[in-house]
Amino acid sequence: MLKILRRYAPEIVRLLLGIVLTAASVSKIFAFRPFVMSASLLLHLPDRASIYAAAVLILLELVTGLVLLLRRSLRGAAISAAALFLLFALVLSAEIVRGVDAPCNCFGVFGPELPARGQAALDVLLALLAFLLIRGNSASAADIAPRTRILIPATALLWGIALMVWPRPASGGETGVRAANIPLPDKFGESPGRPAVLLLADFDDFGCQLCLDDFLAFCDSLNGERFRSAVSVRLIARRDSTRSASAQSRLIEGWASGNSYRFPVSVDSGAIFERSGVGKTSAILVASDGRLLDVVHFPAGISRRNEILREIGG
């Protein structure tokens, strides 16, 4: 049994890595905007650079996945796969250490709904499998030193454990946004004992269905009886320079009415988006005493969205 497993394990790993990379890259092509947003947030790149970075990563994933599935240049493809998974794991780990739980979209819309640390741990595991595939396709056993064969799996195990036990940031921890910079609307979040949610909507971000669906799901939850009685909510749309302020106000009011949203809506001149440092479609959570609790960017994913709803709704 052990001999059979050792014989077919490389083929199973090859197919698994090829399917994961190919599926992830194809899904990112159809949900390109969310992945660009994630790249911009996680890699701290300007918008134009994040578009190029996202395109290059998707291309590398697609080529690597197809080469693995077609069983061509296996060792080179395995090295490329290990590098890609390690890159995602390193970027996510760096954000987790900083206390930021930002969405990654590493596996595209077909991937599992996991928080950042779960996705990072999965990337570490896949990188380890890619290393085992490299080892299995080495020209000789001498290509990889015996010490390295033990050191790499041990490092991956410790890395995964560290991600799982790393302390979560306390309420009001690092979010990339300073509470003092947010010019909150008048009469916002002033109800004693009630937190507040400021929904910032940039409709340019809704070019992909994933962003729009995630944002609408969050709005629908806040619009429910449970949250309306416990949370102050306001929806603010980014000013569109192609329309007059009055025309856009009517548009956003009509949009909110059409979705049966009962919280106040308005159009921002740019101050909240620019001065807060958020700049994207987001939800800013503020405590009843004015403290910044958290910032969630869309698409957030089901796990992250539910975590925020629990935080503000009890």
3D structure, described in words:
The chain has a five-stranded mixed β-sheet with strand order 3-2-1-4-5. A hairpin with a 5-residue loop joins strand 4 (282-286) and strand 5. Helix 1 (2-30) packs across helix 5 and helix 3 packs antiparallel against helix 4. The chain has two domains: 2-165; 179-313, Glutaredoxin, CATH 3.40.30.10. 58% of the residues lie in helices and 9% in strands. The protein has helices spanning 2-30, 32-43, 47-70, 74-98, 116-136, 146-165, 209-222, 225-228, 245-258, 271-276, 302-313; strands at residues 196-201, 232-238, 265-268, 282-286, 292-297. The longest helix is centred in the N-terminal third of the chain and has 29 residues, at 2-30. 37% of the residues are buried. The protein is elongated, with a radius of gyration of 22 Å. The chain is of the alpha/beta class and 314 residues long.
Low-confidence stretches: 170-180
The number of strands is: 5
SS class: alpha/beta
- Give the N-terminus to C-terminus distance in angstroms: 51 Å
Estimated radius of gyration: 22 Å
Number of helices: 11
Helix and strand run: HHHHHHEHHEHEHEEH
Shape: elongated
Question: Helix proportion of residues, in percent?
Answer: 55-70%
Q: Mean of residue pLDDT?
A: 75
Percent in strands:
5-15%
- Biggest beta-sheet profile: 5 strands, mixed
